[in-house]
Amino acid sequence: MRWIHALLLLLFAMTLARPAQAATRVVATVPDLAALAAEIGGEHVQVTALSLPTQDPHFVDARPNLALELSKADLLLVVGLQLEVGWLPALQTGSRNPKILQGAAGYLDCSQFVTLLQVPTQQLSRAMGDIHPGGNPHYLYDPRAVRSVALGIAERLAQVDPAHADAFRANAQDFVGRLDAARVRWEADLAGLKGQPIIAFHNSWPYLADWLGFDLIMHIEPKPGIPPTPAHVSHVLQAAREQGVKVILQEAYFPTTTSQLVADKAGAKLVVLAGGTDFNAGQGWIANMDAQVAALKAGLGG
Ligand SMILES: [Zn+2]
Q: What is the CATH number of the domain that holds 83?
């Protein structure tokens, strides 16, 4: 009898030692989506980002360690609109994980939750540069888009891990509440941007411009993804002077030389914004936006 007791004790101890339930593994292509997933999934998810805010999300190195992350994923979050078309498909194939292939429950294209801007109405050709046929993919700078994306992620997490559906929805509501409050503050802080002519390096801010009411009059890249040429830069400089541009915008992952040159010659200020939330350092999306808004406000001169 004694060994049966010992065995039962052992089995009981093993039950106690087993974790309640393995966390859902979420992999996001960009840190903004990773930050949203962490916020909504809380303790029930384990989140990884495939890129850093210092990396241009159009061109991420498809290294084997990223495929390894994908091989373990239960849910893949993508920006979509072909932002990741140059690097993600190879990684998905390399991961040999059917759960995260397009069309599976573990694949979520977050662009479906967003009111898209710059959806081309004409035939596209290579000569037009790196144009996204589904619309502009840089919607994660806009709190209105982020609000819808957060709620969409919560619903998909609830589908992938139904046992924690209530927690995901509650976390999403909590996030959206804080986001709405912050948005009022940001709109007040950046009211001075309304109607301002602004020049940007890459075509990254149509959603921000739409939200805050500024005019993106030109880009320093002659076409998306094409480096600036002297002829185009002189056009941009002329427009900057004629329209009294005060702010030149660009992301930190692009070289600043040309933007700084245009800013200096036009008497404008170069505002370099982070390319996304510093998720690996524990930053949340709202904290990142607070920093972006502070940088924009400083660019406006107060
Ligand atoms: Zn782009």
A: 3.40.50.1980
Confidence at residue 4, expressed as pLDDT on a 0 to 100 scale = 62
Task: Name the percent of the chain in helix, strand, coil, to the closest 5.
Answer: 50, 10, 35
Q: Is 290 within a domain? A: yes
Say yes or no: 86 and 123 in one domain: yes
Owner of token pair 């959603």: 207
- Residue appearing with tokens 């002519």: 197
Ligand 1 mean position, distance from CA 225 (Å): 7
| Residue 179 and residue 202 share a domain | no
Give distance in angstroms: CA of 207 to centre of ligand 1: 12
Residue 1 has pLDDT above 80, yes or no: no
Length of the chain: 302
What is the reported pLDDT for 22? 80
Kindly state whether residues 122 and 226 are assigned to the same domain: no
**Sheet-wide strand order for 24-28:** 45-49, 24-28, 75-78, 107-109
Q: Is the per-residue pLDDT at 51 higher than 50?
A: yes
The average pLDDT across 258-263 equals: 97
Domain-embedded: residue 15 = no
Cα(171) to ligand 1 centroid in Å equals 30
What are the residues whose beta carbons fall under 8 Å from the beta carbon of 31, sequence distance 6 or more? 49, 51, 52, 53, 276, 277, 278, 279, 280
Task: Answer yes or no: are the C-beta atoms of 160 and 24 closer than 8 Å.
Answer: yes
CA of 131 to the centre of ligand 1 (A): 8
Answer yes or no: do 32 and 181 share one domain. Answer: yes
State in Å: Cα 255 to ligand 1 middle.
15
Dist. CA 189 → ligand 1 center (Å): 26
pLDDT score for 13? 57
| Residue numbers of the domain that contains 158 | 24-185
